[in-house]
Amino acid sequence: MRRIILNNVAKIKIIIADNSFLIREGLRSIINAHTELKLVGEAEKAEHLAEKILLHRPHVLVIDYTSLYFSIDDIPPIHQKFPEVNILAITSPQNKIIISKSIENGVISHLLKDCGKEEIIEAIYSTAKGQ
């Protein structure tokens, strides 16, 4: 894995937003295995997300807007209130209309939940850079 410098930031700070314990645990494990990444918070419900972002000021928000306590409509207020936070969506397969809407709403990158570990890490780095 190549090293990516993000505006002299020592570690890329990440918040995970997903209601599933297993998904959060899996992402936590992947993130914690990389010294340049730092998990700073998790949200199980949309109502806690803005508070977590305000408290931890992450570079990247990893969200499943299709999980039980989140929706695609949670993205615009987060994007408007915290434009410096780049959003990576990791969801089950969605139709093109939903994916297009998520990108219009502020999602920078989009992966499917059946992606591999290296895809997740590369997506986090790319999303942190706004790509």
Protein model, in words:
The chain is of the alpha/beta class and 131 residues long. The chain has helices spanning 21-32, 46-56, 75-81, 96-105, 117-128; strands at 12-17, 37-43, 60-63, 86-91, 107-112. Strands 2-1-3-4-5 form a 5-stranded parallel beta sheet, with helices on both faces. β4 (86-91), α4 and β5 (107-112) form a beta-alpha-beta unit. The two termini are 17 Å apart.
Notable traits:
single chain, 131 residues, alpha/beta, five-stranded parallel beta sheet, 5 strands, 40% helix
Secondary structure topology:
Elements: E1 12-17, H1 21-32, E2 37-43, H2 46-56, E3 60-63, H3 75-81, E4 86-91, H4 96-105, E5 107-112, H5 117-128
Parallel strand pairs: 1-2, 1-3, 3-4, 4-5
Low-confidence stretches: none
- Beta-strand share of residues: 15-25%
Number of strands: 5
Estimated radius of gyration: 13 Å
Question: Counting H and I runs of at least 4 residues, what is the number of helices?
Answer: 5
Structural class: alpha/beta
Order of helices and strands: EHEHEHEHEH
State the share of residues found in helices, binned by percent: 25-40%
Give a nutshell description of this structure:
Helices cover 40% and strands 22% of the residues. The chain is of the alpha/beta class and 131 residues long.
